[in-house]
């Protein structure tokens, strides 16, 4: 039970302190005065407003700020409350846009081990067994299975193999033409899998060839985490829709954004019944969440946290890479400050997370993969401590 957070550390109810490297939410750490002040100021001025009735200046400012960070054509921002809601909205927007263009399609192509959220539509994308649900599949989904083990992604054949699999999935073997491809630039819940360089740009070309929209789910990679403001910047790819959330307000408040091309927005604008991207909830674009996001983005830019993630991510990778092939560590991989250690089995991974916790370090685990995802504001000394605690936990267990 946690009761307090300061900088990179959280404290539990017994007063024990932990270095927190457990979440892509952690943009600038805990109790940052600038964010706390912005939240307080917003609460005492205009805490929020139902955007279906009227807009407010903080939501407008954030929508413009997000658009300003995106490639020029992704000029419109819909604000929602969570990664799930943003993915759900992106799928609805894509499907309705296809209808408005007179080319109705519903089939979505995605990774079998992707994760895009917890509601029925978002969850139905994933082929992960624990995300099965008792309802009918709401849309046809063609899933591409990643080669296993994930370190295969660094083999010289990986890129061609992956693009060939997506080409086959898009072609669809007699199925309806594809509406969209939805992928994470780095597969988070599905095992911290880093995809081969060139994958996103290859996918962009394939989407154009098959008339499918490219929807990038940057919920866990957006806002500096991978060493660029957005992971798609590593390849200069322009998607049709980009979904972001976790890093946006650094975990200070629930918020997410769906960034869409001007042409998609315009298509909705012309429809007499839909009229604009109306996919929000009562609390979408909530004033306090928008204020937290604007303050977080100020810090991200002022302190070049993306550049910092790139630089310190390389330090972290260099320090942990030597563990690969020893002590049950099957692979070490990462992008920016999102580093994953894959163990030979899940039992070892569970034991490493427990041993790390005993040493005052919180890590994240998905199956046999243990992830180190610290605040982007972490300094060199604290990063050394993170490495030392991981090494010590691995040494004890394996
Ligand atoms: N998409 C990705 C890539 C995620 O990693 C997550 C959450 O882990 C989601 C979507 C869902 O976001 P949320 O938990 O905010 O609904």
TrEMBL record:
Highest taxon of the lineage: Bacteria
Pfam families per the UniProt record, alphabetical: Aminotran_3
InterPro entries (alphabetical): Aminotrans_3, Aminotrans_3_PPA_site, PyrdxlP-dep_Trfase, PyrdxlP-dep_Trfase_major, PyrdxlP-dep_Trfase_small
Cytoplasm is among the record's keywords: no
Keywords for this protein: Aminotransferase, Pyridoxal phosphate, Transferase
An annotated Gene Ontology molecular function: transaminase activity
Family: Belongs to the class-III pyridoxal-phosphate-dependent aminotransferase family.
Protein name from the UniProt record: Aspartate aminotransferase family protein
């Amino acid at each position: 039970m946690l009761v307090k957070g300061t900088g990179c550390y959280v404290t539990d109810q017994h007063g024990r302190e932990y270095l927190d490297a457990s979440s892509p939410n952690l943009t600038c750490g805990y109790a940052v005065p600038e964010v706390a002040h912005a939240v307080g100021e917003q609460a005492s001025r205009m805490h929020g407003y139902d955007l279906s009735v009227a807009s407010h200046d903080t939501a407008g400012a954030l929508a413009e700020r997000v658009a300003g960070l995106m490639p020029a054509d992704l000029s419109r921002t819909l604000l929602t409350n969570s990664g799930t809601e943003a993915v759900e909205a992106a799928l609805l927007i894509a499907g309705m846009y296809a209808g408005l263009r007179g080319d109705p399609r519903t089939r979505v192509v995605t990774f079998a081990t992707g994760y895009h959220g917890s509601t029925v539509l978002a969850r139905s994308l994933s082929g992960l067994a624990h995300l099965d649900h008792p309802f009918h599949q709401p849309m046809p989904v063609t899933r591409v299975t990643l080669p296993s083990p994930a370190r295969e992604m660094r083999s010289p054949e990986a890129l061609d193999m992956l693009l060939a699999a997506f080409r086959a999935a898009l072609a669809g073997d007699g199925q309806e033409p594809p509406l969209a491809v939805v992928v994470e630039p780095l597969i988070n819940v599905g095992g911290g899998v880093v995809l081969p360089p060139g994958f996103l740009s290859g996918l962009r070309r394939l989407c154009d060839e098959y008339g499918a929209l490219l929807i990038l789910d940057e919920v866990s990679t957006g806002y500096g985490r991978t060493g660029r403001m957005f992971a798609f910047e590593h390849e200069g790819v322009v998607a049709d829709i980009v979904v972001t959330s976790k890093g946006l307000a650094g975990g200070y408040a629930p918020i997410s954004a769906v960034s869409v091309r001007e042409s998609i927005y315009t298509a909705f604008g012309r429809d007499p019944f839909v009229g604009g991207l109306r996919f929000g909830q009562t609390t979408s674009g909530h004033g306090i969440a928008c204020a937290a996001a604007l303050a977080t983005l100020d810090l991200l830019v002022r302190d070049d946290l993306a550049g910092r993630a790139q630089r310190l991510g390389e330090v972290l990778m260099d320090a942990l890479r030597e563990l690969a092939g020893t002590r049950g560590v099957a692979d070490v991989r990462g992008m920016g400050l999102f580093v994953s250690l894959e163990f030979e089995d899940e039992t070892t991974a569970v034991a490493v997370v427990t041993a790390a916790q005993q040493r005052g370090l919180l890590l994240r685990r998905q199956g046999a993969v243990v992830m180190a995802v610290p605040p982007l504001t972490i300094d060199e000394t604290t990063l050394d401590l993170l490495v030392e605690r991981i090494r010590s936990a691995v040494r004890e267990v394996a």
